[in-house]
C-alpha cells in the first residue's frame, strides 16, 4: 500500500468535520445512568493457567442492561501492582485464553483484558461474551447493527460496557492509577472510555489509543474501501434513503466527539499506509483531544499493523514516565 491520505504536514493541521449532536452529553448521561441502575457486583474466580509469574482470574461484570461481560484480570505473582491497565480488543477478536499474557503484568501492572460483546469470531483470539440484543436489517459484522437509531445502535452497548470496565477495574484495585489502551477497535474504545471517564468524574492518568478505529466516520466511510468501515458503505448501498439518519446515529459514537471531552494525557499512534484506519481519521481524533498533554507516534511505511512491538516499547516507556 502506497501513501494515499493527506501529507503528514496536513494531517497535523487536519480538523474533522463530524457534527456533534446537540444532546450528545444528555444521551450518554442517560445511557450510563441506565447501565448503572442495572449493575451488580463483579464475580472474580481464580484460574489455574500453569503460569508462575502472574496470577489470573476470570472476571464477570455487569455491562449495559446488566448483561454479563467477561474479562481476564492478570496481576504479578510476586509483587503488588503499581497501576491498572484496562485493555480493549480489536475488531472480531475477544479476550482470548487465560494464559495469553501481555507485557503489562510482566511490567508490574494489573491488567484487565475486556471481551467485546458479540465478537470473538476472529481465529486469532476467541471471545466469551454474548450480545443478547436484537437488530433490524444489518450487514454481516457489527458496524450496522441497530444503526437506525442511536438508542439501538450496537456500540451504545459496547461503549457503556467500556465505562463499566473502568469502574470494575477501580473496584478490583482501588487507589491505583488507571490507564486505558487498545489497538484498532480497542483504540477507538480507549478514546470513548476516556471521554466517558471525564464526563463521569473517573480519573484516568493515561490513554493509549493505537491505530484507533471508530473515528471520523464521515471521512472514514468515503476514503477507504476496507472493512470494517466498508460494512457501513455496503449497508447504505442497499438502504439508499438512510444516509442522513445513519450519519446522525454515528455522530453519537464518533471518537472525535469523545476526544473533545477527554482530559487524560494521551499517546496515540498511526500508520501512514493504513487503509483500515486511515491516518486522517486518527488525526481527526488526536487533534480534537481535550488535553494539551498529548503525543502521537507516526509510522510512515506501515499498514494497519502500525508500530507493533515497536509501539509497545514506546508505550511501556511512556507509562513508566507518567507514573514516575
Spell out the key features of this protein.
alpha/beta, 9-stranded mixed beta sheet, 11 helices, 9 strands, 17% strand, Rossmann fold, 324 residues
Q: N-to-C SSE series? A: HHEEEEHEHEHEHHHHEHEH
Please indicate the count of domains.
Answer: 1
Mind telling me the CATH class? Alpha Beta
Distance between the termini: 39 Å
Computed structural class: alpha/beta
Beta fraction: 15-25%
Helix content: 25-40%
Number of helices: 11
Pfam family, one: AXE1
Active site: 184, 274, 304
Organism: Microbacterium stercoris
Protein name: Acetylxylan esterase
What would you note in describing this structure?
The chain has eleven helices and nine strands. By secondary structure, the protein is an alpha/beta fold. It has helices at residues 8-13, 24-37, 103-106, 154-172, 185-199, 217-223, 229-238, 243-250, 255-259, 279-288, 309-323; strands at residues 43-47, 54-62, 68-76, 84-88, 110-114, 178-183, 206-210, 266-271, 294-299. The model has no long low-confidence stretch (mean pLDDT 97). The chain has a single domain (8-323), classed as Alpha/Beta hydrolase fold, catalytic domain (Rossmann fold), CATH 3.40.50.1820. Helix 4 (154-172) crosses helix 5 and helix 6 packs across helix 7 (229-238).
Structure in a nutshell:
GO terms for molecular function: carboxylic ester hydrolase activity. With 324 residues, the protein is of the alpha/beta class.
Amino acid at each position: 500500500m502506497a501513501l494515499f491520505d493527506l501529507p503528514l504536514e496536513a494531517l497535523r493541521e487536519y480538523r474533522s468535520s463530524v457534527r456533534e449532536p446537540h444532546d450528545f452529553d444528555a444521551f450518554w448521561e442517560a445511557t450510563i445512568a441506565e447501565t448503572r441502575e442495572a449493575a451488580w457486583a463483579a464475580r472474580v474466580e481464580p484460574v489455574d493457567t500453569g503460569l508462575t509469574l502472574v496470577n489470573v482470574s476470570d472476571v464477570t461484570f455487569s455491562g449495559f442492561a446488566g448483561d454479563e461481560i467477561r474479562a481476564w484480570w492478570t496481576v504479578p505473582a510476586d509483587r503488588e501492582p503499581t497501576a491498572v491497565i484496562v485493555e480493549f480488543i480489536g475488531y472480531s477478536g475477544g479476550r482470548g485464553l487465560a494464559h495469553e499474557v501481555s507485557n503489562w503484568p510482566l511490567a508490574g501492572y494489573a491488567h484487565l483484558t475486556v471481551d467485546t460483546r458479540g465478537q470473538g469470531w476472529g481465529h486469532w483470539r476467541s471471545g466469551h461474551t454474548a450480545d443478547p440484543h436484537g437488530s433490524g436489517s444489518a450487514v454481516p459484522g457489527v458496524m450496522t447493527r441497530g444503526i437506525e437509531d442511536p438508542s439501538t445502535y450496537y456500540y451504545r452497548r459496547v461503549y457503556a460496557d467500556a465505562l463499566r470496565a473502568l469502574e470494575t477495574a477501580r473496584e478490583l484495585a482501588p487507589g491505583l492509577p488507571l490507564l486505558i489502551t487498545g489497538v484498532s477497535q480497542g483504540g477507538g474504545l480507549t478514546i470513548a472510555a476516556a471521554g466517558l471517564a471525564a464526563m463521569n468524574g473517573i480519573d484516568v492518568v493515561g490513554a493509549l489509543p493505537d491505530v484507533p478505529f471508530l473515528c471520523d466516520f464521515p471521512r472514514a466511510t468515503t476514503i477507504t474501501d476496507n472493512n470494517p468501515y466498508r460494512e457501513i458503505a455496503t449497508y447504505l448501498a442497499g438502504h439508499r434513503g438512510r444516509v442522513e439518519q445513519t450519519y446522525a446515529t454515528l455522530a453519537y459514537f464518533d471518537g472525535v466527539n469523545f476526544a473533545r471531552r477527554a482530559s487524560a494525557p494521551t499517546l496515540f499512534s498511526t500508520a501512514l499506509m493504513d487503509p483500515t484506519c486511515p491516518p486522517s481519521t486518527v488525526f481527526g481524533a488526536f487533534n480534537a483531544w481535550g488535553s494539551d498533554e498529548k503525543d502521537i507516534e507516526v509510522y510512515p511505511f506501515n499498514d494497519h499493523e502500525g508500530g507493533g512491538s515497536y509501539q509497545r516499547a514506546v508505550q511501556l516507556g511512556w507509562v513508566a514516565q507518567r507514573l514516575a
